[in-house]
Amino acid sequence: MDKENFRFYIKVRTAFNVEATTIHDELRTVFGDEAPSYRTIARWAQWFREGREEIEDEERSGRPVAGSTPENIEEIRSIVSDDPHFTIAELQEYTDLSYGTVHRILSDHVELRKITARYIPKQLTDYRRSERVRICKENLSRFTEGGWRLSDVVTGDDSWFFHQQTGRKVSNAAWVAKDDLLPTIVRRNKFASKTLFCIFFKSTGPLLIHRVERGQIINHQYYIENCLQPVIEEIKKQRPRSDTHAIKFHHDNGGPHFHKDVLDYLHSEGITVVPQPPNSPDLSPCDFWLFDLIKRNLTDQTDSKSLHNAITEFMYSLDKEEYRKTFDKWIQRMELCVDNQGHYFEHLMK
């Protein structure tokens, strides 16, 4: 089926107010990879809705059909400027240039390269970025000028840990012979067994690894009784002389964490809360270091108890220097956040 026939089908279906996504699905079902891309279908559907009648390409008077001419370069530049998601195949169809010519224009003349979009935790507004900068500046000034010490900081958070591990893509790679079947791994079921853990640590090592029972909701009262109180008891045990003096507590902005009763309890123990910018897992040691490290090193576990034991064993096997270095990295990340005007900065890290 040639492109004019595809366009005629798009024109007819568009006249019946059929969405471009549905037209694309219909053509893919019948013609597979021979069907036009969704972007092409959406573009022609838009033209037909705007009143276009012809299904043939418009004549390009005086325009060379091949070669890296100034006219071709400018046309490619204009198209990609309007929509940077165009593929070379789509540009080829749109301009009637060869694949090699389009590729050469993009790389040598327009000087573009195609990269995959990076994932970010949240779409940051101007206000959120300014808050990230403000809070990081305040925290940094307290550590550099206000007498705060990293050795006095306690940080913690909660995360789900699966009982069965699937491994990372790189660890699943395997050499296979030419005629061997490709290895496969079944995607984890959303109902796969998992357990929620609340974990707290400081620069000298773990303080609490708390397993949350299935079905238990973490409200402010549960958080105080099962997380904060045991953590503070452990701090007092480790520091019998200084007790909780100068201790700074860092956790995220979850609802229970900033309940009035939680803040009052920490204040009664003489503990200062370190502000954490909202939507900022890149500024939380649990998120940017600990949880991912644990999950990469876990083996399959039969139940939540054995999983608890495995996590505990791994965390206590880590050198204390690793914990200390993580807090140094936390400072570096706050500095990067300020330097990058509050934008996410993971892609800038080496």
Descriptive account of the structure:
The protein has 350 residues and is an alpha/beta fold. The chain folds into two domains: 3-109, no CATH class; 126-348, Ribonuclease H-like superfamily/Ribonuclease H (Nucleotidyltransferase, domain 5, 2-Layer Sandwich). Helix content is 48%, strand content 9%. The chain has a five-stranded mixed β-sheet, with helices on both faces. The chain starts with a helix and ends in an 11-residue tail after the last helix. The mean pLDDT is 88.
Keywords:
single chain; 350 residues; 2 domains; nucleic acid binding; Transposase
How many helices? The count is 13
Oligomer: single chain
State the low-pLDDT regions, or none.
none
How much beta, percentage-wise? 5-15%
Count of the separate structural domains: 2
Report the strand count: 5
Helix content: 40-55%
- The spatial strand order of the largest sheet comes to 3-2-1-4-5
Overall shape: elongated
> Which architecture of the largest domain does the CATH hierarchy give at level 2?
2-Layer Sandwich
Q: Which radius of gyration do the C-alpha atoms yield? A: 29 Å
Order of helices and strands: HHHHHHHEHEEHEHEHHH
CATH class designation of the largest domain: Alpha Beta
Query: The CATH topology of the largest domain, please?
Result: Nucleotidyltransferase, domain 5
**Termini distance?**
50 Å
Superfamily (CATH H level) name of the largest domain = Ribonuclease H-like superfamily/Ribonuclease H
Mean pLDDT score: 88
Classify the secondary structure makeup into a structural class: alpha/beta
Biggest beta-sheet profile: 5 strands, mixed
GO molecular function, one term: nucleic acid binding
Organism: Rotaria sordida
InterPro entries: RNaseH_sf, Transposase-MT_Hybrid, Transposase_1
Protein name: Transposase
